[in-house]
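task queued by scheduler; priority normal; single chain, no ligands, no partner chains; default sampling; output format set to structure tokens
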Amino acid sequence: MDGTLIKPCIDFADMRKRIYDIADTDPFLSGNSDRGDVLELYALLSPAGQIRATEVFSDIEQKANDEMTLMDGASELCNYLDSRGIKRAVLTRNVDKSIGVMHNLLWKEASVPEFTPAVSRDTKGKDGITTLASKPSPDGIRHICDSWNCTPQTVIMVGDSSADDMVAASRANCAAKVLLQMNGMELDNNSGGKGPVTDEEMVERQPSLVVSSLGQLLEELKIEL
């Protein structure tokens, strides 16, 4: 969502630093934190550490919500998909509240209906109890496909992170993987844990198509659909 449907507004560098500082002094980790993915690290913290980390996430995400603006071309892309009867969903490592802010912006600025389903790190799986694993796990994509009664081989994944979005799409076996690099630039969208990778992981990170804007993606879709 951030960096794809909305302009980048999360300070990932600040998030990493603040969560790593908590982990470095957390009694459950005894100073042995590997400084990996911040969401995975959160699960390993002590109860007190998780409270502090939640405060960090909430602070950063609230600032992002306050500054949220739609990505150029987002509403036009949504309107085109809707006009063709093509389903669209959102899958994000953000929380439900952030999705709600985006939905409100889309409706207020362009009368664009909500994404269905909208899957966040708060979303529960089929059992209604267990929270779905976040990207790069393919669970969110599979959850969307189950709700649409289709297979991942019939969907396109669009995202701005090769380490999260493209890998999740590869592991779900999506039909296509589109990497959005705004103005051809690779931005800091790193939640941590994206260090050295295997040859297999490098293959998983490869997109089917790279676009520099949602406008370019829309033109590509008009050619293919």
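post-processing summary
- Strands lie at 90-91, 118-119, 156-159, 176-180, 209-211.
- The chain has a mean pLDDT of 92.
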